[in-house]
């Protein structure tokens, strides 16, 4: 029902900018193809069930899925449901990602331009956006505090036909 297509990562510190604290921040965009038309909630459920969603974001993405730890970032995977996601306006998702990127300080203009382009490609204008809110209070796993110290930001962008899904995660260590 769902097929992983590709993964793009942008390391903010690699954009000719280093955070004074030595913090490392990145945005990971995973593109999926859905093999059949379905509702938005069913598309989110398909994404959650993908072995590519079972990832702690504490290490680089493997060229093959590495399911089994049953975690997603700081959360226990079994605590995440399609109903956990909230429908949000694309503008709100773009703003949240930009604000998160600036938590470490003002970014140089060239970095901001490249980051803005990356975010807007990850969240296309005509896609519907869904946010996984912070559910640490009820879903954090035993070492979840090590991921997303300044936030674990997640959005899913679904194409109008539900044929394409982008999983967008912004996090740090």
Textual characterization of the structure:
The chain is of the alpha+beta class and 173 residues long. The protein has one domain (2-17, 26-58, 72-150, 161-172). Helix content is 23%, strand content 27%. It is built from four helices and eight strands, in the order ββαβββααβαββ. The protein has helices spanning 40-49, 90-101, 109-122, 136-139, and strands spanning 2-11, 25-34, 71-72, 75-76, 86-88, 128-132, 153-158, 164-172.
Structural topology:
Layout: E1 2-11, E2 25-34, H1 40-49, E3 71-72, E4 75-76, E5 86-88, H2 90-101, H3 109-122, E6 128-132, H4 136-139, E7 153-158, E8 164-172
Antiparallel strand pairs: 1-2, 2-8, 3-4, 5-6, 6-7, 7-8
Keywords:
single chain, 173 residues, alpha+beta, 6-stranded antiparallel sheet, two-stranded antiparallel ribbon, 23% helix
Which geometry do the CA atoms define? globular
| Fraction in helix | 10-25%
What is the H/E order? EEHEEEHHEHEE
**Computed Rg:** 15 Å
Q: How large is the share of residues in beta strands?
A: 25-35%
Unreliable spans: 16-20
Number of domain units: 1
The largest pleated sheet is described as:
6 strands, antiparallel
Report how far apart the termini are.
Answer: 33 Å
Number of DSSP helical runs: 4
Let me know the average pLDDT.
87
Strand arrangement in the largest pleated sheet: 1-2-8-7-6-5
The secondary-structure class comes to alpha+beta
How many β-strand runs?
8
Briefly characterize the structure.
By secondary structure, the protein is α+β, with helices and mostly antiparallel strands. The chain has 4 helices and 8 strands, in the order ββαβββααβαββ. It has a 6-stranded antiparallel beta sheet with strand order 1-2-8-7-6-5, sandwiched between helices.
């Amino acid at each position: 029902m769902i097929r992983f297509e590709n993964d793009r990562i942008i390391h903010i510190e690699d954009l000719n900018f280093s955070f004074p604290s030595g913090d490392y921040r990145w945005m990971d965009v995973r593109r999926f193809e859905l093999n059949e038309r379905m509702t938005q909630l069913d598309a989110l459920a398909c994404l959650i069930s993908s072995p590519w969603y079972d990832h702690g974001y504490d290490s680089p993405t493997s060229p093959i899925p590495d399911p089994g730890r049953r975690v997603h970032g700081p959360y226990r995977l079994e605590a995440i449901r399609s109903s956990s996601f909230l429908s949000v306006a694309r503008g709100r998702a773009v703003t949240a990602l930009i604000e998160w990127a600036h938590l470490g300080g003002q970014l140089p203009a060239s970095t901001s331009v490249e980051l803005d382009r990356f975010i807007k490609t990850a969240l296309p204008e005509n896609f519907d956006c869904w946010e996984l809110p912070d559910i640490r209070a009820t879903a954090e796993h035993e070492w979840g505090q090590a991921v997303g110290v300044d936030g674990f930001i997640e959005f899913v962008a679904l194409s109008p036909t539900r044929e394409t899904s982008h999983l967008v995660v912004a996090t740090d260590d």
